[in-house]
Amino acid sequence: MIQMVKDLVSTRDLSGEDIDLILTTASSFKDVLKRDIKKVPALRGKTVVNLFFEPSTRTKTSFELAEKRLSSDVLNFSTLTSSVVKGESLFDTVKTIESYGVDFIVIRHSLSGAPHFIAKNTSASVINAGDGINEHPTQALLDAFTIKEKKNSFQNLTVAIVGDILHSRVAKSNIYCLQRLGAKVRLVGPPTLLPVTVPEGMDVFYNIDEGVKDVDVIMMLRIQMERQGKGFFPSANEYFKYWGLDANRLKHAKQDAIVMHPGPMNRGIEISSDVADSPQAVILEQVTNGLAVRMAVLYLLSGNRK
Amino acid sequence: MTKEFLNKKDIDRILARIAHEIIEMNKGSESLGLVGIQRGGVHLAQRLASKIKAIDEADIPVGSLDIALYRDDIGLRKEHPIVRRTSISFDITDMKIILVDDVLFTGRSIRAAMDALMDLGRPAQIQLAVLIDRGHRELPIRADFVGKNIPTSSTENVEVRLEEDGVEDGVMLHSPK
């Protein structure tokens, strides 16, 4: 049970019941966020440190606001202004922060596995806010929350994950999470950006028109320029021509299909502006839901602490 | 050992009496609102509302309040309480709010409920109605309307069963052997 574990490092660790509990709790928090007083005292006296070793705007602000809405004390730590530039090791950084008596460590790191390593070496609850090309569990949970809000159920639902799946931690966390919930997942992208081995029961499409045909949800991924440069595709223009989601391609999906994107978007590369701003796009709702879902995760994990 | 303290009829009579007392003390039902504490209190609040309607022919708004996020024992328990819905569709500001709960024990839930209510608005008054008062208060809190006082020891457990949850109405007292 999520309430009995210390950390959220991977969506693979979550059972279907865990995910259900997180989503139900998140919908209660979404109600809280609609009130005049959007703050609850649930984590009063707890301390959360946001340890970001990689640039982030939305995930960091989302976590920070979620922590503040729960009345916890928040410490922010980013690499450029910390002792990491002086050569301190990850282990020592964590041990130092732990000495302040923190209850939660929210970590983003460019190395896959860093949150797992930290979780093993601290008594604080560790939440993975994205590690390298491995996982981004709270993104997958907020995506699941958004899908559930729009589609009610995951049964008989087909989700196409489109784009740079190879480098995407969002895709990986989503694949585990959506499959656990019973949705059918398709991977759509150029062969160079798809993983070498594909999990069982998953269809792979190299053509986006076929890939999004009759799907209920299109989950676009960001082309990760910072992890590129190895000639995965010739140019941004060419990528858009063959792989970008525009209004014509969207027509292949079901009429009530929703379009998601974890942000930040590269308009004109993986998604056209008219699709990004269309009524079918739920991209800004994903941001709002992210706050509620992160509050739920912080709240549920805190149950383990004494 | 389990002992039935109240049966369906008893509970019905008690709620009818409390409904009368609420109207008497508030000189009618004007600007009254009932707020049940999740979960048992919500059912009782709804029953009280229909009893008050039968007496005073007034529709009293009913809401439900979840206090999980306002508890003072978060982190002391092994597991977190489930966060249920808070659904109060009316503005509580300047209203006389009657908090409804099934069992009054330490008073800590009521403290949490009052804090939760205050975050939703500024009621003119908060009154408290409970089906059972079992004593052992840890905070200076008392109920305005009490269904039944049951003297208990702190090791005993009072269970309120309501048919809205699919069981027969009843109040049980469980004592360790």
What do these coordinates show?
- The complex is a heterodimer of chains A (about 300) and B (about 180).
- In chain A, the strands form two sheets. In chain A, strands 7-6-5-8-9 form a five-stranded parallel β-sheet.
- The relative contact order of chain A is 0.17.
- Chain A is globular, with a radius of gyration of 19 Å.
- Chain A contains eleven helices and nine strands.
- The mean pLDDT of chain A is about 90.
- With about 300 residues, chain A is an alpha/beta fold.
- In chain A, strand 3 (about 105-110), helix 4 (about 115-120) and strand 4 form a beta-alpha-beta unit.
- Chain A has two domains: about 1-135 and about 285-305, Aspartate/ornithine carbamoyltransferase (Rossmann fold); about 135-285, Aspartate/ornithine carbamoyltransferase (Rossmann fold), CATH 3.40.50.
- With about 180 residues, chain B is of the alpha/beta class.
- Chain B has one domain (about 1-175): Rossmann fold (3-Layer(aba) Sandwich).
- Chain B is about 25% helix and about 30% strand.
- Chain B has helices spanning about 10-25, 40-55, 110-120, and strands at about 1-5, 30-35, 60-65, 95-105, 125-135, 145-150, 155-160, 170-175.
- Chain B has a five-stranded parallel β-sheet. A three-stranded antiparallel β-sheet of chain B has the order 1-8-7.
- Chains A and B meet through helix 1 and helix 11 of A and loops of B.
